[in-house]
Amino acid sequence: MTQEEKKSILRIALYAGEILLKNGGETYRTEETIDTICKSKGLKHVNSFVTPTGIFVSDDRLDGISFIKRIKGRTINLSKISEVNNFARRFVEEDISEKEAILELRKIDKERKYKKSIRTFFTGLASAFFALLFGGGATDFILAFLISIIAIKVNWEIEKLSNTSFLANATSGALISFLALCSKSIGFGTSIDMIIVGSIMPLVPGVALTNGLRDFISGDLIAGTSRVAEAILIAISIAVGVGTVLKLWIHLFGGTF
Amino acid sequence: MLYYKDFIFAFISTVGFSVLFNVPKKSIFYAGLTGGIGWTIYMYTKDITISSTFSVFLASILVGILGEIFARVDKKPVTTFVIPGIVPLVPGYTIYLSMVNLINQDFNTAAKFGTEAVFTSGAISVAIIFVTSVAKIMKR
């Protein structure tokens, strides 16, 4: 095997790992996928080190060649994880050329599963039923549906413009509490708490915290700590948004809640 | 049949989250089922044992087992069902409450909610890891 071939196998493994990590794959799954892809083609001494913000792949028998990939944003996209999983299995079993493999991975990377409008609608649905789950009434249901749709739209738009998720989360948090307070003060909606609970559900980092602790317990200590820190940061940014508006509202109009 | 309402609400919100998380169309029903059953068991055990953390632990074990079963049935990775399945159980709102109280300088309440959040998500992750480890051993 020539140097070039070895490099391209590492590159395929790195790309597969990048897609997994960017779309919410667990740390151990990313490392396992990279290792199995490399081992299946005869690169037996590959080490991969995965953190939420970057992937390091290195082969100590290959003139110390190593690749680093910086990962910027992370979302949850489970269909891509399952597709990369299938791809890795096929790549190990069958004989796929490097060019085909890269093209296929690029197709997975670019793919869009559901239209934005459908995702927005279902986000609203999820939030509305969460409000019911926590004990809200019928008007809270409707309000949580509308407010969460507005909030997630705004969140996505700001995320497009700004690299830091802090701004997006703080703004949507502020918007949620502002709309909830407005609707309550015109006499619509029974409980502000229930409206806010439902509406912030899509933003709140519960899954992120749990994934962080999962990494932590499985021994990926750096990945675990940084995921937990990220979850706390997201929670703080939402709380800053909501808290600021609540404080201002009470200061200006008195305690309506 | 006291919990049918809980099941329906949790089922639909899990389905909503599944679309947000881009779960493939064919798997959405299974994902919703995982979330709905997990939440129903959580409510039931919470009513009879009072301990919230323990109930979350039991419910997450069930979510993990259902995830393993559906992964075999539907030929998809376990995560596809486990991540949407734990969404209703996960302490998102609790972390948020903890941070709000921290900002309002109510440190006691913040600590109370904060530890509750860590306990809950710790219980979920221990349960999920437990199930995956056992499944891995049994596969061998």
UniProtKB/TrEMBL annotation, chain A:
GO CC term (a single one)? plasma membrane
What keywords sit in the KW lines? Cell membrane, Membrane, Transmembrane, Transmembrane helix
Instruction: Provide the primary localization.
Output: membrane
* GO-annotated molecular function: transmembrane transporter activity
Where the record annotates domain Threonine/serine exporter-like N-terminal, the positions are 11-249
Q: How does it sit in the membrane?
A: Multi-pass membrane protein
Location in or out of the cell = Cell membrane
TM stretches of this protein? 120-152, 164-182, 194-211, 231-250
Among the GO biological process terms of this entry, one is: succinate transport
- Family according to the record: Belongs to the ThrE exporter (TC 2.A.79) family.
Q: What is this protein called?
A: Uncharacterized membrane protein YjjP, DUF1212 family
Please tell me the species this chain comes from. Paramaledivibacter caminithermalis (strain DSM 15212 / CIP 107654 / DViRD3)
Please name the taxonomic classification of the source.
Bacteria, Bacillati, Bacillota, Clostridia, Peptostreptococcales
From TrEMBL, chain B:
The Threonine/Serine exporter ThrE domain is annotated at 6-134
Spans traversing the lipid bilayer: 6-23, 50-71, 78-97, 117-138
Per the record, the domain of life is: Bacteria
Indicate what this protein is called per its UniProt record: Uncharacterized membrane protein YjjB, DUF3815 family
Q: How does it sit in the membrane?
A: Multi-pass membrane protein
Q: Could you tell me which species this protein originates from?
A: Paramaledivibacter caminithermalis (strain DSM 15212 / CIP 107654 / DViRD3)
Biological process GO terms, please?
succinate transport
Q: What is its main location?
A: membrane
Family assignment? Belongs to the ThrE exporter (TC 2.A.79) family.
Entry's localization field: Cell membrane
The record's GO CC annotations read: plasma membrane
Task: Provide this UniProt record's keywords sorted from A to Z.
Answer: Cell inner membrane, Cell membrane, Membrane, Transmembrane, Transmembrane helix
